[in-house]
Amino acid sequence: MSRRNRLNFRAAWALSGVLLCLIAPVPARTQQEAPSDALRLTLEEAVAYARGHNPMVLAARQEVEARRGQHREAASLFWPDLTFTETYSRTTNPVYVFMGKLNQERFGMMDFALPNLNRPAPLNNYQSRAELTAPLFAGGKIKAAYRASRLGVEAASSQSVFAESSLTKAVTEAFLGSLLAGRAAEVMAETVGTAEAHLRQVEAMHGQGLILDSDLLRMRVFVSDMRQQRAAREADAKVARAYLAYAMGHDGEVEPVGELSGEGEAPPSLQEALEAALSGREDLRAAELQSRQASEGVKMARADYLPQVGAVAAYEQDTESWSGHGDNWMVGIQLRLPLFDGGARSGRLLTARSREFQARQALLDLQRKVRVEVREAWLRLEAASERVSVSSESEAQARENLRIVELRYKEGMASITDLLDADTALTASALQRAQAVHDERVARARLQWAMGK
Q1: CB-based contacts of 109: which residues, under 8 Å, 6+ apart?
Q2: DSSP assignment of 120-183, as one string?
Q3: What are the φ/ψ torsions at residue 129 (nearest 5 degrees)?
Q4: By Cβ atoms counted within 10 A, which residue in 24, 35, 169, 336 is the most buried?
Q5: CA gap 218, 211 in Å, rounded
Q6: Rounded to whole angstroms, how far apart are CA atoms 100 and 319?
Q7: What letter would DSSP give residue 39?
Q8: Buried-exposed string 107-140: b where 16+ CB fall within 10 A, e elsewhere
């Protein structure tokens, strides 16, 4: 063996230790750590936390309460309306003075005198009045309003449930993305640390004349590239944790706890997934309820063309100084027959019919959208599952390839470049497998969401 080959052999033997360290199993935690005060949560705990703190979910729940308030308001239309008013007045208006004294039951003969009738003295009057009104017939408008408000409560409840389901999907995706980014940052941090330690070793060997300048430069380029990748991966991990905290509704730091691993559960068939989605999606149910609610709005608009009948009753007391009073009562029935309103009723009916058509079309569009979402999620899950299997085989082949190249290098039949290429291939295949596992779990979560689970 020539002196040049002996030098290459010694350098390769030293660098093989570097390469073996670079592909060694990565510890669970490295220097890429979250702050000590970070909230450490598993996926299940992150979802539970988000359901109690995410602003949009809390707002969706409050919308249900708002619709319940509207339903209570609509239900009140069935009941009589009882009001009490207390009025004080002081006047010299002849008509009001005349009526006021009559209501106070203290009208006397002197009040018929023309000077008293024309220019009466000021009159104080305290009027206490209780009035009751009750609807008797409204053309079905009250019932339609009651049914519409009840459908509104049910639709808001379904929207709230769907919001929680969407939040679960979003938190799951953010959690898995944070795990993947954190794993990549840990790998690169360990890789850089090991590469820098062995670079010092190579530099020492170069000073002794055991390796060529080109091999030293190649190693320095490799270390520089790894440092750049480490910085990018660390930034990715911080950004991913920030998005996870945002999805959870948490203002501080969050650290996901868990490992990326395939779940292995066989997904349902595409037809089963479609059937489950069409029957179980809460946003579909909400759209159906909103369509029915719009139909009740048309009934309410039509009712404006019919007569409305109501009952009224009142009891009144009038007094000037609370030492005595006069009282009276009144009962009656009121018929309201709309004749002409300048087109206001026809405008309301046109609006209601348009809203009904829009709601039906929105429901039809959502049904089609759900089918597409389910199909997409199912196909992506199928592809991701296949990628997990293929990437596992690829990683095993890359590891075997590195073993063979190492043996060839020891025999002087391969160069340092061959070894670094083999190591790069193994690192890439390992990251590809991690990405495939991540994509498989994300696709599974999206399919569950698309199916309404």
Answers
A1: none
A2: PPPEEEEEEEEEEEEEEE-TTHHHHHHHHHHHHHHHHHHHHHHHHHHHHHHHHHHHHHHHHHHH
A3: -140, 130
A4: 169
A5: 12
A6: 9
A7: E
A8: eeeeeeeeeeeeebeebebbbeeeeeeebeebbe
* pLDDT at 375 exceeding the cut of 50: yes
Closest CA to 355 of 417, 301, 419: 301
Which residues does residue 135 pair with via DSSP β-bridges, in sequence order?
310
Domain tally for the chain?
A: 1
Phi, psi dihedral angles at 138 (to 5 degrees):
-130, 20
Which residue shows structure tokens 């004749």?
339
Contact of 389 with 262, CB cutoff 8 Å: no
Residue 310 has pLDDT above 70, yes or no: yes
Residue 79 burial (CB count, 10 A): 9
Beta-bridge mates of residue 150: none
pLDDT higher at 389 or 420: 389
Domain that holds residue 362: 3-450
Query: 101: pLDDT confidence band, cut at 50, 70 and 90?
Result: confident
| Long-range contact set of residues 114-119: C-beta below 8 Å, sequence gap at least 24 | 118/94, 119/92, 119/94
Amino acid (1-letter code) at residue 23: I
Query: In this structure, what CATH number is given to the domain that contains residue 41?
Result: 1.20.1600.10
